Amino acid sequence: MTIKSQNIEKMLAEKGLSKKDFAERCGISRQSISTIIRRGTCEPKTAGKLAAGLGVPVTDIIAEV
Hints:
This protein is an all-alpha fold.
């Protein structure tokens, strides 16, 4: 699944969250968060965890194909 990495980075900045804090909220390692943001892809289940960690719908972080 393709994600909007820039949107995630922007939301983290707006919420004042570090990648470490975000990772803890999502239940994913910080390194995995960095890899996902860098690559711009993840599994659908992981996209759900990312969206939940940000408190937004999944549609806000996935790219339309």
